[in-house]
Amino acid sequence: MAKTTPNEFDPESAIIDADLLVKYRMVNRAVETLERAIDSAPRHVGLREKLREILIDAGRRDQAAQHCLALASLHISAGDLDSANERLLEAKRLDPRVSVTGQLRDTGSVETAPARTQRILSGSLADVSLFDIIQIIENSRLTGVLTTTSSAVSGEIHFDEGLVVGAKSGVDFGRKALSQFAGAADGSFDFEKTTETYDRTIQTTSNTALILDMLRIQDEEDHGLGKLDTLQ
Predict the structure, then answer these.
(1) What rounded mean pLDDT belongs to the chain?
(2) By CB distance 3.0 to 4.6 Å, which of 175, 178, 227, 232 could disulfide with 167?
(3) Measured between alpha carbons, how far is 72 from 139 in angstroms, rounded to an integer?
(4) Domain ranges for the chain
(5) d(Cα 52, Cα 48) in Å, to the nearest integer?
(6) Residue 2 scores a pLDDT above 80
């Protein structure tokens, strides 16, 4: 039975209590026990992993997906690329509707990286959309370069503490290059965290505004309204 003492939010005790509650088919109480513990220790991986496991077993896939996203962000913070990719892809499998925006912000910012290049994320654009990746980078306040290779475009998007500051594709730079990334729905991506400072070829205070412009251009092209040379 779950403790009612001040120690009820101790992570290890909460996990043991949750297992016991599940054993006696009190799943809702097990979930509540872990949620209270997570409120006290939001960056504890073990608590979220146990809650994710219980939610999946209970068929509550949408809630499990949200905790997968939180875990992905925690693994990014720790530099654990494989685990971050695994949880991010699992979130998409559990609930294709998930948005990375709010959940990843709740887990906190990534600590400052050492003065070197470090691969943080990689995968397939068929599994994770480019816009989701941009949101992950923004909400984790990462600095570095996102490299994509797809049938639509091959190039780089540059970030400074999560904000898009530049892009290049072939001979194009800045907003003109960035507009070409909207159609990237296949191929692969890699994000490398670095302390390098990139030339600012895109002036903006909001990634959301840039994404909306990219989507608008893509929509106009899809409807045969012609290709725009640059984002407005």
Answers:
(1) 80
(2) 178
(3) 12
(4) 7-97, 109-232
(5) 6
(6) no
